[in-house]
Specification:
The protein has a domain of 58 residues. Helix content is 55%, strand content 7%. It has 6 helices and 4 strands, in the order H-H-E-E-E-E-H-H-H-H. A hairpin with a 2-residue loop joins strand 3 and strand 4. The longest helix has 28 residues.
């Protein structure tokens, strides 16, 4: 997933780099399959030590990245996660979501236990199963239900 560069973005970046818009396009821009202007390098040529060197002039798509507010975000999620180790914004958003979901899940577990809907033993069993699934995802190994 790459930012789409509008004319305004190209003007702003080229001005910041002290080059003409045509020079910017020649050096940094390609067209995607829809004919939109995109950067011709991955990761972004303006990232240095995971920091944007053109932060004040960054494209509109970069300003709103990872586009949580846009329709069908869930269908683009894998592309966002693939940028986790490259883009500091993705890392920060992912980390905040992970912490929030963990906190909400723990609260949900407590509500279930307090209401008598589920026992402490059932919660422990779910935690073991979730750990096994998580391990499978991270290692690619096959995991079944715990014996016993």
């Amino acid at each position: 997933m790459q930012p789409i560069l509008k004319k305004k973005d190209i003007r702003k970046l080229s001005k910041s780099l002290n080059i003409t818009p045509d020079q910017f396009k020649t050096k940094y821009v390609d067209k995607d399959e829809d004919g939109d202007n995109i950067l011709n390098q991955l990761p972004c040529p303006f990232l240095n030590d995971n920091k944007c060197t053109q932060y004040d002039s960054r494209p509109v798509d970069c300003e709103s990245y990872p586009h949580l507010h846009k329709k069908d975000f869930v269908f683009r999620l894998i592309g966002v996660v693939n940028n986790y180790s490259i883009c500091p914004i993705v890392f920060n958003v992912y980390d905040a979501l992970k912490n929030r979901l963990k906190s909400e899940f723990i609260g949900f577990q407590k509500e279930l236990m307090n209401s008598g809907t589920i026992s402490t033993e059932q919660i422990a069993e779910l935690d073991r199963e979730n750990f096994a699934v998580s391990r499978k995802v991270h290692t690619g190994s096959k995991v079944g239900r715990p014996a016993g």
